[in-house]
Amino acid sequence: xxxxxxxxxxxxxxxxxxxxxxxxxxxxxxxxxxxxxxxxxxxxxxxxxxxxxxxxxxxxxxxxxxxxxxxxxxxxxxxxxxxxxxxxxxxxxxxxxxxxxxxxxxxxxxxxxxxxxxxxxxxxxxxxxxxxxxxxxxxxxxxxxxxxxxxxxxxxxxxxxxxxxxxxxxxxxxxxxxxxxxxxxxxxxxxxxxxxxxxxxxxxxxxxxxxxxxxxxxxxxxxxxxxxxxxxxxxxxxxxxxxxxxxxxxxxxxxxxxxxxxxxxxxxxxxxxxxxxxxxxxxxxxxxxxxxxxxxxxxxxxxxxxxxxxxxxxxxxxxxxxxxxxxxxxxxxxxxxxxxxxxxxxxxxxxxxxxxxxxxxxxxxxxxxxxxxxxxxxxxxxxxxxxxxxxxxxxxxxxxxxxxxxxxxxxxxxxxxxxxxxxxxxxxxxxxxxxxxxxxxxxxxxxxxxxxxxxxxxxxxxxxxxxxxxxxxxxxxx
Length: 478
Known about the structure:
35% of the residues lie in helices and 20% in strands. The strands form two sheets. Strands 9-8-10-11-7-12-13-14-15 form a nine-stranded mixed sheet, with helices on both faces. A six-stranded antiparallel sheet has the order 3-2-1-6-5-4. The protein is α/β, with parallel strands linked by helices.
């Protein structure tokens, strides 16, 4: 890409009636094929008034405004779209220096660098979100409109100084995120689930449903590879619980991970999944793919929303039924939230031991009740006792995780599903978190207690040669 093609005045090249960001004509001097119009950055998106930790008044002055306006007329979006971020940064910096010299605009080096980074973020990134996405201390990003952006750090919410220009700027970023994974979000379809390239999960709600402007909720995917050992060292669980979950995963127990929103269910599932044998074939089913399994033989399936005509939808239940024909050793459902619960139980009961899923619930017993209700949603017409029999036969463990009021995520309980007494599902807690008090710094003080019960699946553990390890964890005699 030569500098001349990047720095052309796009406005002078547009024919009457042609969009300002349309692809250049063949004689425009570009070597490569032009980028399609739908993929080109909208020049109106390029300007953002703030970056992380800076206020609008300290940045947006007349000189920068004039510089930004001049830059937008000289940037060719087609050429910019074909450049690497670093190459784009170099070219924009060259233009900034050139325009500053021509127009005698006074910008110091820091202001120039900030302006260049803003433009690069908008053209090849996600605009004002980029500093937050790069910040490893941020776990969640919540955008409640252009001037109301919050983050979660260490389990606590914080209001940031990040701002978008207006509602349309936020909507443009949201549509770019959705389009990257083949999804659509606009006024006719204002709700969408998507993901970023790094696996971070994104939920989008646009007006008229979101009254204060476009709303985005981003659950960042940690770049750290979290293991059960790391979670134990962080205080999320005890060392005994970590070892027990490793045994449960290797012995192919069927596990439900239960918890509230943001409690760490997916992180825990990723950690437990590391215990799966590399020789097994795993099929994952999710609304928006975010599981990061490390095994070599993983098939990832993702649901598809309906098209403009309302047809073509593929839901989790459809994918689960198809997964049974794919010769899986294990099936992992990212989150069970509807009638697919019946198909998941069927899979667990028909030779796909070691399957896992998550469910939103506050206690292990609530999780079982929710699964029961979701099976009823499938409309299979089974009596309640038959459904509970299926649950007892399919599920071995419910692992409850909670984000507690000090912001730390802890395993609240590991509960075994034992059987039926009459029409009631019976359970027993193998591990429990017990609250002891509060430290001066606001963190909770407690301990993880083991029950010392012999679980009903002990024979299964023994068949995998793990009985002795299990006995050592619980301090039991053989």
